[in-house]
Structures are given as structure tokens and as C-alpha cells.
Amino acid sequence: MNNLIEIRGLTKAYDAKHIAVNNISLTLPRGKIIGLLGPNGSGKTTLIKMLNGLLTPTQGSIRIGGQPIGVETKAHVAYLPDRTYLSGNKRVNEILDFFCDFYEDFSRGQAIGMLQSLGIDPASRMNTLSKGTKEKVQLILVMSRDADLYILDEPIAGVDPAARDYILRTILNNYNPSATVLISTHLIGDIEQVLDEVIFMRYGCLLLYTSVDNVREQHGKSVDAYFREVFAC
Amino acid sequence: MLGKLIKHEWKSTYKMGCLMLGAMAVITFLGWLSFQAPFWKSLTSTSGSVSWLDIFSMFTMMIYVTLLACVIFGIRVYLGVHFYRTMYTDQGYLTHTLPVTKHQILVSKITVSGLWTLLVLISVYLSLFILAFSMVWAVAPEWYVPADIMMGIWDILLEMESLFGFRATHFVGMWIAVSLIGSFTSNMILFGGISLGQLASRAKLFLGIVFYILIVVAEQMIVSLFRSFADSFGIYMNLKMDLQFIVDLLAAALLYAATYMIISKKLNLV
Q1: CA dihedral over B243, B244, B247, B250, signed as positive or negative
Q2: Do A86 and B7 make contact, defined as CB atoms within 8 angstroms?
């Protein structure tokens, strides 16, 4: 089965006036790096939260690897939220223990290797690390898993260009090639070179789902330039 | 997975729990120290006179009672804040994406918070016993025979039994049950209140606290209402414990179901 994610008629309405995701149907394959793109308020984070079981859809369904969202899918999805979700009181190696206990696909050796390459001491407490270093620790935790699906919500936002390069290299060098990586970002120019496919969202609706090559061939533009044209204010 | 959740929940709360137990030990020592002052011995002597040290010992006793209340209140506040942080703030992103069921998450939190509450409660009882015995020792050392004191307390209960139709064994049994089970149900009620606050669109934590207070007040009103049917002091005392136990259990069961529904269907981490 080549399809990894199957979304059917997915809607999330917070109330009658606020429909964050509106009747989306989408099938995403395995082994691709997919950019989830759209302006603020387009429903990207809501869609990501539903994929991770953090929000319950108002209507429609999601299946990952043929399973509805639940314990089974969470065991195979590696999620990087757009915020620091680790307790500041914990040491990095305590967090590694935590991930080892809960995720069978987590490689402690791989995580230690990446931490060492960045000069991050596993004995340091999270609240002693800078914002950028915390983000790198979180990325290392996610990319040290041999997951079927990696969902990265704004992984390069708020970090310097050198750190962005490191993050992109980490994603490319560590993800399981048979897995799918779904990246939500505003910084399209920085990640365009790693994307296979793109999803454009606006006002909670699916605007476009195509390959990066298609965008370049059909519109004669980079994804970044095409995004600016489509979402011009 | 439940065992792993309990292990990590214990690891993330043990520092504060141990701090509270350490504080109880220090408070108990201070209380014991206050009974070593000459004032207490002067109560049974004819030449007693009050000095600054005596005033100090009285002051220490007041501090003891206040600190005792602070520890009991403190552990409850800490457990509530810990639950809120790990379930409904940024840390909730990790909690709710773990490959575990919602029931496992809730059970691990209730188990660990209940165990801490129980440990603190036992330390409070222990502290009160130590203080009571210290007081007897300070005021009337000739009466200080621990076994006799315990028998004396039991005799008083039996006396009440014959006078008021009060069932002493039933009362003590229910008191132990309320302390034991109540350590867990009281935390579930607290977590339920906090979770109900999540249904609001704003001021969720504040409303969670308001819900908790309202639930506790409602519980006490129900207990008082049914207790008012008691036609004797003995039945009144027995009924108080029985009702408290039943109402606590029912409230905890209802709030467990409500919390489960909220984290399953209405979770909305900002």
C-alpha cells in the first residue's frame, strides 16, 4: 500500500463562524517530503493537530497507514510542534529515557550522536539551553525515530540561517526514506530545494496539491514565487 | 505502557513530594521543640510564671498549625498545577501524542497524585500523634504511657458508642477508608474541575479553579443535607463519614468520565 495518509471530507469548526478546516479530501503517498503551505489562519496547524490526535474532527475521517487516529498511529508518527513542549526542569538525558520508554522506534545512539555533533551536553537541563538549542533538541528527538510519518510544524522558524541549514540537513540525513515528511512553514525559499510535493491551503480549504516539478513546469516559477503570486495581498 | 507512565509521572513529581514530606518533618520537629519549653511543665506546677520563652512556645504552636495547613494545601496546589501544565499547556503536546490511551494517562496521574496525597496525609497524622504524645510528656510525664493513651482514646470512643449509639469501629473503619480512597478521589475531583475549565473559550485555568470550588461546595451541601436527617449525635457522626465516602466516590467517577470526554473530544491546546 503506497498511500500513507487518507483524509476524507475533513472539517474542523470551532464554532459556527470559525471553520478552520473545510471539507478537505487528500491522499498522501509514502516516501515524499511534502510542504504544507499557506498564509496565517489557513488551517495548517489545525490539520496537523488533527493528524496527531490533538483535535477531534467535526466531520470526516483521517487514516494513517490504514488506521484511524489513535494509539497505533501515534506510535508511528513523529511530531515536532511549533513550540517547546518539554519540561524545563528535565535534563536532556532524562528526556532521552522518556522517548526510549515510549517509542519503540527511537534510537538513543542516533540522538546522542546528533547531540554530540552540536556540542549539546546530555546532562544539561532544558531551561539552561537557548531557544534555538531547545528547538534543535526537539528536532533531534523527532528525527531519531524511525517513524512512518514525520510532521514538522514550522521547524525552521525563529532560528538563524546557519541553524536552518543544520535543521534541513538533519531532516534529509535522518528520515526514513520510505517515510513521508510533512513540513509546515512560511519560509518556503529555505526549504523549497528539499520538497517533492506541495499543498497550498487557504481559508481552511485545499487550494492545490501537486509536485514541485509540476509547479515549475506549468507556471515557470519557483514554489516560493508561485506562492507569493497565489497569496498576494 | 501504564507502568511507564506511572514511573515518569512519579519521577517528575518526586522532588516536590519529598520537599513536602521534608517540610513536615521540620514542622513536626519545631512542634516537638515547642513542648520542650518550661511553660508546658509550669501548667501542672504551682509556681508557674510566664516568660518570653513561654510566649515563644505558644507562637511556635501557632506556626506549627499554620505550616501544617500550608503543606496540605501546598501539595494539592502543586498537583493541580502539574496536572494543568502536563495536560493543557505546551507540555500537553507531548502528553497527548504519546502512544497511550486516554484512560492510561488519567489513571497514571490519579495514581501518582493520590499516592503523594496519601503520603502527606500519613505524615500529617504521624506529626499530630507525635505532637499529642509530646504534649502529654511535657504536661504530665507521669501519665506518659503510649499504650495507655491509645487505650484511653479507644475507651472514649466506646463510651460515645454506649452514650450516643455511635459505632466506633465503623467510624474508625470509614475514617481510614476516607483517608485512603479520598486521597485519590480528591485529586480526581480537582482534575475534573480543571478539565471542566477547558470547555471555556478564555480564562480556562481561572474557571477550572472556580469549577473545583463549586464542586467541593456542592459536595458539602449534599453531605450536610442528608446528615440533617440524623436524629442522634452517634448517627450524625457515622453518617458524616459514610456520606462523605459515597459522595466523594460518585463525584470522582462522574468527573473521571467528564475529563475523559474532554480530553478525547474537546481537547484544544492553544
Answers
A1: negative
A2: no
Reported as a single tens digit per residue, the pLDDT across B169-190 is: 777 888 888 889 999 999 999 9
Taking a C-beta distance cutoff of 8 angstroms, is the pair A190, A168 a contact? Answer: yes
Give the pLDDT band of residue A158 (cuts 50, 70, 90): low
Closest CA to A169 of A196, A191, A188: A191
**Three-state secondary structure of B28-40:** HHHHHHHCCCHHH
Instruction: Provide the pLDDT confidence category of residue B59 given band limits of 50, 70 and 90.
Output: confident
Q: Is A176 helix (H, G, I), strand (E, B) or coil?
A: coil
Q: Provide the Cα torsion A183, A184, A186, A187; round to 10°.
A: -10
Query: How many Cβ atoms are within 10 Å of B224's Cβ, its own excluded?
Result: 11
Q: Domain total for chain A?
A: 1
Phi, psi of B68 (to 5 degrees): -60, -45
CATH number at residue A35: 3.40.50.300
Q: Cβ atoms within 10 A of the Cβ of B235, count?
A: 17
Range of the domain at A119: 3-230
B-interface mutation test, from A14, A50, A52, A55, most B Cβ less than 10 A away: A55
Q: What is the residue whose three cell numbers read 510532521?
A: A151
Structure ipTM: 0.87
Best mutation target among A83, A90, A135 (most B Cβ atoms within 10 Å) is: A83
Question: What is the pLDDT at residue B54?
Answer: 62
- Model confidence over A164-214: pLDDT tens digits? 777 788 777 777 778 899 999 888 888 888 889 999 999 999 989 999 999
Q: What ranges do the domains of chain B cover?
A: 1-142, 145-270
Q: How many CA atoms lie within 13 A of B270 on its CB side?
A: 10
